[in-house]
Amino acid sequence: MSNRDKLELEYEDEDSGEILERIKEGGRLMSLARRMRDGDFEVGDEMKDDNFVEEIVLCQVLTNSVEVQVNEQRSLGIAIYGPNFSWINHSCSPNACYRFSVSGSELEMNYDESKLRIFASGEETVLKTWVCDESKLNNGICGYGPKIIVRTIKPIKKGEEVCIAYTDLLQPKGTRHSELWSKYRFNCCCWRCSASPPTYLDRVLQENADAHIEESKSSSDDYFYRNEAYKELINCMDDIISEYLSDGNPESCCEKLESMLTRSLQEEQPEEEQSLANFKLHPLHHLSLNAYITLASAYKIHANNLSALHSRTDDPISEVFELSKTSAAYYFLLAGVTHHLFLSESSLIAIAAHFWISAGESLLNLISNPMWNSSLNRQPANLISSSLLCNRWNKCMLMEKLEMDLVFCQSQSKSRLLEFEEISQSFLGCLSKILPPVWTFLIHGHRYFKYIKDPIDFSWLGITKNHNLKESQALQGSTGVGSSYFGRTSCCCRCEVREGIDEQKTSILQLGVHCLLYGGYLTTICYCRDCYLTSYVKNLLCQVDKQGC
Ligand SMILES: C[S@@+](CC[C@H](N)C(=O)[O-])C[C@H]1O[C@@H](n2cnc3c(N)ncnc32)[C@H](O)[C@@H]1O
């Protein structure tokens, strides 16, 4: 499918007009290049308008290509895979996800960095490409480059359509729809988009946490005023993030984003900021999520920059320590928020897995900060004390099970769903013991976090869940785990609250390893045991072991 006709029909629409112009220009240049290559070029040909085939090719690329990402760090470019993949439609509550796989030998042997080059605005941009190995040619089609693997993430009934996500599922419905329309030319009618009342996920992603005034009961002025405040917040955040991307100054970005988040939650507002005050940004809101993602990484980059600047001094820098603590707190909050949302929409499993792993990694990084040793005249820097690890941080039954599952690929005796329910409950049980002191330590004195009453259980927000039949069915068919956290979850493990410096480090380590193993466990469900992300988790866990015992 190329959607070429739809683009032509929608020419009136401003966006489509621009896209169509660019397709026409691209098609003209491609056909010109073809004629020159074939020696079939005469003066005046450059003005010819018979580029239909080239235009179709470009439209097919727009409609069917996917961004190829073989690891977390960077994207390799875009690719079009065969019909087995390209024919899969989209849903905002998909039952499948995909990942790319490339073997180490493939990366080393077939990866020729010099093959394809393009020039853009005077600067040379090098595109990497896989070189076709003649011996692998199979009827003219060669199987080189990363493989794409589609995997189910929900039970799929016979005859039911398999769908994947073309867009970010944590965006509100309006944003998803305009993105799907401008890129793919269709209006999504999946059950999540058609749900009435809207699903819990769609409601919280956009809900104003201020007093719940129903649209019909509020005055039109009030509604208008809030809408304006919402647009103002979006513009303000976009400006801060674009400024950060262009000037690369994490310090100013953190300062501005946090003032924005904090101001939107303050009860008393200066008069000139009244419109922002009218829109409360609760932590499950999609704008808060965008802000947390930027803040978690900006704090980490700021800490790394500062530590590189002082790399020659032996003294550890307390500011680096504080920045790393805040970065870990944001990663943890992101894990808590996405986990909460995942429990109501199971297709968010890969996102939740990703943030649990990032939270675990940032907590382990914090443990190896030299500041722990200096202020207390402890053992050599950068080493997690071996007594700490020989103690094996009182590894609980859940950790032992998850480690066996991840590292030794132990076979399961139960259904995946039953096992998931048990593991998730035990995980929340462990967190209810280890997290409170660690969270207090991470957020101490921070102006924004004092508004976050709990980073895992968001019942304090007072946003009630729907009784949408399809939603509860989806839940039963997938996670089935309630979002209860403090108090209500039972835990049979040996995790315990600790006091004192070594104990504090132990609690952070315990929490970090729990997050990594749980994130790794979710990864095995959505991507399988043998993928890049699970190897990444195993490597991090290996480093903990090597540093210690
Ligand atoms: C990658 S192709 C998918 C394969 C396509 N359905 C076909 O038969 O060739 C993307 C295009 O499929 C259509 N499509 C995908 N998901 C859809 C959905 N949920 N509803 C309607 N059309 C959809 C849109 O036209 C979109 O541009």
TrEMBL record:
InterPro entries for this protein: SET_dom, SET_dom_sf
Annotated SET domain residues: 5-167
One Pfam family, short name: SET
PANTHER family tied to this protein: PROTEIN SET DOMAIN GROUP 41
Protein name: SET domain
Species: Macleaya cordata
